[in-house]
Amino acid sequence: MATLIRIDDPSDPRLADYVGLREATLRRLLETEQGIFIAEGSTVIRRAVEAGYPPRSFLLAERWLAGLADLLDGLDVPVYVVTEPLAESVTGFHVHRGALASLHRVGRHTVADVLAGRRVMVLEDLVDHTNVGAIARNAAGLGWDGMLVSAHCADPLYRRSVKVSMGTVLSLPWARLDDRVDLGVLLRDAGYRVAALALADDAVDLATFAGSLRPDDKVAVLLGTEGHGLSAAWLEAADAVVTIPMRAGVDSLNVAAASAIAGYVLA
After folding, report:
1. pTM of the prediction?
2. What is the SS3 assignment for 213?
3. Consecutive H or E run containing 130
């Protein structure tokens, strides 16, 4: 059984991994330096450990000990047992699920691993962690094989991304692209038909692109940043610019919603 350590001082240095979880700039610096990420909620914690991410410590309210006992059994890591008000003081928000874990980041998949699949979502420079997590959940739920993210895309292992994905980002194969990669060459060499979701005069609608696919085609969908969409370089990497037909003067959907529709139609 992991070692239970009861803590009643929010300034205890052993809780450093959990400080200021809502402060994105601080967390990016800390998590990069320490090589960690945070999982929130018993379900996500369980999925993270079962997916092969080694835990560094746990921060749990008393009520979660019994439910996670089987997971903690045999782990040689500290379990910090705290009250929920103390957890809120340390983290900076109400941890309504009462359970957190700090886990080691490990590179579980390479770009080549992801491209060995048949259906891949590719994200360019998204800034919203919620969108990254939602896209991962859509990809996993709709049977896609993996996700690639650009060098400057929001972190799929940031706490909010992991939470919104319901832990699916921990099992879905994903990898980060090198900033210098020629995306078109990379995807073509891996045998992919590439659809860029964007607005353009020469765009085809999603159903038309889907109808052009052969049963054995591999498909990659490119999804651009929330504000400006895909860059010119990424648009040039695509075989087709594809749109989801819209009505009532609306020209586009949230990128996560668009990924769900495209993921369903092209799955």
Report:
1. 0.90
2. coil
3. helix 129-141
